[in-house]
Amino acid sequence: MTILVTGGAGYIGSHCVRQLIEAGQKVCVIDNLYRGHREAVPAEASFFQIDLLETERLTEVMKSQRIEKVIHFAALAYVGESVTEPLPYYMNNTAGTVSLLRAMRNSRVSQIVFSSSCATYGIPDQIPVTEESPQSPINPYGWSKLFIEQILNDCSHSYPNFGFIGLRYFNVAGCSHDGALGEDHDPETHLIPNCLRTALGQQSHMTVLGNDYPTDDGTCIRDYVHVEDICSAHLLALNALNPQSSRYYNIGLGQGFSVLDVVKTSERVTGHEIPVEFKPRRPGDPPVLSASNKRISEELGWSPKYTSLEEIIQTAWDWFRTHPEGYRTETAS
Ligand code: UDP
């Protein structure tokens, strides 16, 4: 059986493709390479440069590659950008997923693991957030993912063989344990990469986006979970998929760290000072997010390997200091 991985050239997708291959799966990757890296896709996987909106081409690939299940990562994923440019988010994420689901129906593929997000919860009314918490996004990125959740619910209601598992990620961080795969975004908007780039001297300081939040130090609190632990949850979900299994799971560690905690931990890990400058809040950022992972631990047996922020940042640092130009570092050398 072959697994189709959409967005397999992206940060989380590429780490997952690698785990699937190591687990002995046949993998087919599709990616439009808008923000992904062809170099990040292992040679063992077949690769097609296709956009999610190309329903016909997707259908052909699903038929010719004998796809049995889909893991769907491909998406735009910057909260701030989604506020300034909402339409590409609804087009790529929401309409793109409808196109993918249509191609799946055309080719009789009926099982999908979907990357959802804690952004669907908006500003949660309780911490840690359980899967039952009300979903009321505060940015277009979160809405684009919540609309997909509704579409998946409708499909599973109406199509008897259809099965999905939706994984609501909290803040994905870190790089592969052996430094082979990393995080390479352009533009880079994420907190940990920006701390590490400051430690490398690539920028003079870290910008802290808001220090007037209702938290102890005034900065936002997030739940950072290692990318390889996110991937192991996908492998568990893939095995659990069936038309009766359709449901959502949070993936996070249940511990929250403020932006300033992350800066200080990055200073300890890297041994470099990371100067900060305070700027106003970024629109669309909830003050505090951390996950209850009780459901995925109990039902799928998920057990994260990385449980300290320090260890997570260490794996990212191993990649950033050896790949100062991201994947281009290897091409250049
Ligand atoms: N953040 C920050 N400076 C940066 C990048 C991010 O202060 O250069 C903050 C951001 O406002 C949020 C947290 O760090 O509160 C995590 O942001 P990130 O973009 O890493 O992930 P997100 O929570 O948007 O998925």
Question: How is this structure best described in words?
Answer:
With 333 residues, this protein is α/β, with parallel strands linked by helices. It has 2 domains: 2-173 and 225-251, Rossmann fold (3-Layer(aba) Sandwich); 191-222 and 254-332, UDP-galactose 4-epimerase, domain 1, CATH 3.90.25.10. It has 11 helices and 13 strands. The strands form 4 sheets. The chain has a 7-stranded parallel beta sheet with strand order 3-2-1-4-5-6-11, sandwiched between helices. α1 (11-22) crosses α7, α2 (55-64) crosses α4 (86-106) and α4 runs parallel beside α5. The longest helix has 21 residues, at 86-106. The two termini are 37 Å apart. The relative contact order is 0.15. The mean pLDDT is 96. Uridine-5'-diphosphate (UDP) binds at residues 79, 171, 189-191, 194, 207-209, 220, 222, 259, 282, 285. Uridine-5'-diphosphate (UDP) is lined by residues 79, 171, 189-191, 194, 207-209, 220, 222, 259, 282, 285. It catalyses: UDP-alpha-D-glucose = UDP-alpha-D-galactose. Its cofactor is NAD(+). It holds the Pfam family Epimerase.
